[in-house]
Amino acid sequence: MRDKIKEYEAVAHAAEKFVKSVAEGNSEYAKTLFTDDAVLFGILNGTVERGSIEQFYRNVDTVGAGDVFKARIDVLAVEETVAVVRVEEGWGGSIDFTDFLLLLKLDDEWKCVAKAYNQNSNTIIK
């Protein structure tokens, strides 16, 4: 059963923690969104990344904030206990991603259990 509009807003609000971490180069916000056992999948500059969300935290903290960062959050689906979010993010064409976040409603709070991403092909460093 699809849920009420307020749940879409709650999911978008949760995803804002992800965006804030990336925008500021500070993983602390994202750490409140992801579960401890969350997983990461994607291909960064031609190399497959998979495993613990800790890799994402290291990437965010290493790259730091960007001067030209922009993001858009699209809530694609919300059911009673699961949601899917797409986040378009970019640093003015220097490196751009499309992230897909899978969230579960745990203890009445939306938490991210998985992140899969695509690095836009025109920003791959070879």
Overview in brief:
The protein is α+β, with helices and mostly antiparallel strands and 126 residues long. The protein is built from three helices and six strands.
Tell me how many strands there are.
6
CA-CA gap between termini? 45 Å
Mean pLDDT: 90
Q: Nearest-angstrom radius of gyration?
A: 14 Å
Q: Which secondary-structure class do the elements indicate?
A: alpha+beta
Biggest sheet, spatial arrangement of strands: 2-1-6-5-4-3
Strand fraction equals over 45%
Question: How does the overall form come out from the CA principal axes?
Answer: globular
Secondary-structure element sequence? Answer: HHEEHEEEE
Largest sheet: 6 strands, mixed
Stretches where pLDDT falls below 50 for ≥5 residues? Answer: none
Tally of contiguous helical segments: 3
Helix content: 25-40%
Keywords:
126 residues; six-stranded mixed beta sheet; 47% strand; 27% helix; alpha+beta
Describe this structure in words.
The chain is α+β, with helices and mostly antiparallel strands. The protein is 27% helix and 47% strand. The protein contains three helices and six strands; from the N terminus they run ααββαββββ. The protein has helices at 5-24, 28-31, 54-63; strands spanning 34-44, 47-52, 69-78, 82-91, 96-106, 109-119. The protein has a six-stranded mixed β-sheet with strand order 2-1-6-5-4-3. The model has no long low-confidence stretch (mean pLDDT 90).
